[in-house]
Amino acid sequence: MNLSARDLGLFALMGAVLAMVGLFQSWQLAITILNMSLISAIMALGVNMQWGYAGLFNVGVVGFTAVGGLAVVLVAQPPVPEAWAAGGLGILLGLMLGVATILAAIAVYKRMTPGKLRGAAIAGVLAVGYLLTSYVFGPAKSAVQAVNPASEGYLGGLNMPVILAWPVGAVFAAGVAWLVGKVSLGLRSDYLAIATLGISEIVIAVMKHERWLARGVNNVTGIDRPVPRPVDLQPQPWVQSLAETLGWNVSQTASVLSGLGYAGLFILVLALLMWLAERALNSPWGRMMRAIRDNEVSARAMGKNVTKRHLNIFVLGSAVCGLAGAMMVSMDGQLTPGSYEPLRFTFLIWVMVIVGGSGNNWGAVLGAFVIWFLWVQVEPAGRWFMEVVTSGMADGSDLKQHLLGSAAYMRLLTMGVALLLMLRFAPRGLIPER
Fold it and tell me: CB within 8 A of 141, min separation 6: which ones?
């Protein structure tokens, strides 16, 4: 799709705003906003594929993002030999028994005729499988978590290059999406929303409490990064020379260079995804998906397998979200399951898609930049505004303390106001679907 002069102007304006942040605040902040906007744009692109292409209401974005982040630990972290020796084989066997139990229950369901006997048989299979799995898995898990719990207490990963974790994160998220889709895509859209919300909370709960997997709420830190850290760049002579030329200190220069390295990688990934997404959207497949979105009844009458197509696009969009989750963890260098909140990784992404323009890939990208910029900048701006408003009040005033304490909620207020204004005055978004 060709961008109009107005669309290009909006992107140019966003670029100018980021440049002003660099000039009047700091270039580190501008680069950080740029990188998180790029990652958010990839997430928004995944949600736009599901909602904008096919009308699928996925409110479990946080779960697929977290699964992608988990892939970084499982791929890039070194294994813990002591943990594997203590209970690694037991955990693998327990997982295999759990999968075998589920498969056995499915086989019984398919082979037996409906009735009380089938229900009793399925219950018996699940009960026996649960007891066997717990007998094997429980002691092995405890043994692994007892191995140096202050810094380890988990099995570790494959010790492979962290960049390989990005496609693996997409595959992991796609696998979870396939399981969710097979169960719920035949239901109404509101049931799909409930299912995705529930599954995402289950994923986060597992990551928090199963410490053998990725240390749970103890977090995994020190993850290898695809770009050198600022502290590693500072001793380099060419970095010191560049800092002297720019008139910056070495720490600032190294931080900006590291951030630009990530920005280059993220732009390459986003550009590839945009090229593929645009080709798909403007292909016969894309036109079919939009036809299904606009009128499922007519699409079924034309012989289209709507449920299968919905599953395809649901898996594809979730894979893109998982890819973004892996990219974010590799940039942060740590996995913190407690930070995965629906407000940040579901609601905010949906606001980006709606504000940018549902059904338009470029609109989703622009919406990600606009909303993330507001998300970062509104709170300090609100604090400054409240300080100006309360400057004439006594220091011990309860009203002053209340107003200053309320500044933290300015970003939530701003997101709500932005969404309401867009729905009222530009319901199709900044760059509408064409």
Answer: 87, 90, 91, 94, 210, 212
What per-residue confidence (pLDDT) applies to 11? 95
| Model pLDDT for residues 307-343, shown as the tens digit of each residue | 889 999 999 999 999 999 999 999 999 999 989 998 8
pLDDT at 400: 80
Look at the block and give the residue holding tokens 């006594």: 394
Q: Rounded to an integer, what distance in angstroms lies between the CA atom of residue 427 and that of residue 363? A: 13
pTM metric for this prediction:
0.93
Is residue 330 within 8 Å of residue 167, measured between CB atoms?
A: no
Residue 135 is encoded by which pair of tokens?
Answer: 């007998």
Residue ranges in 49-160 assigned as alpha helix (H): 54, 61-76, 81-83, 89-111, 116-145
Do 320 and 273 form a contact (C-beta atoms < 8 A)?
Answer: yes
Q: d(Cα 203, Cα 318) in Å, to the nearest integer?
A: 14
**For residues 171 and 177, what is the distance between their CA atoms, to the nearest angstrom?**
10
What CA dihedral angle connects 67, 218, 81 and 92, to 10 degrees?
-50
Question: Cα–Cα distances in Å, from 168 out to 71, 160, 245, 268, 314?
Answer: 6, 11, 41, 18, 17
What average pLDDT is seen over the chain? 91
**CA 242 – CA 174 distance, rounded (Å):** 43
The total number of residues written for the chain in this structure: 434
DSSP 152: -
| C-alpha span between 163 and 227 (Å, rounded) | 10
